[in-house]
Amino acid sequence: MEVKSTYLGTMIGLATVxxxxxxxxxxxxxxxxxxTLFLKPGNGVLAELIYAVIVTIIAILVVQTLAxxxxxxxxxxxxLPWKKSRE
Length: 87
Prior knowledge:
The chain is mostly helical. The chain has one domain (5-86). The chain is 87% helix and 0% strand. The protein has 3 helices and no strands. The mean pLDDT is 84.
């Protein structure tokens, strides 16, 4: 039985998302626990604010890094000599 490339690509994508969610859950717990180390119990709103700020900063850094990586990859493929000869 031949495995279609679209099926394989879909399975790889799903596995990547699943592991990403597991990693996100682990980071979620770590950041929450780290914040509670530095704040007294009862500071729920302050802890949630600090958590939201930290997660937002991390998300911005990751998205910017991925965007720069995608831009570099696009520039790389355009500069290939055989890419120009095909057009």
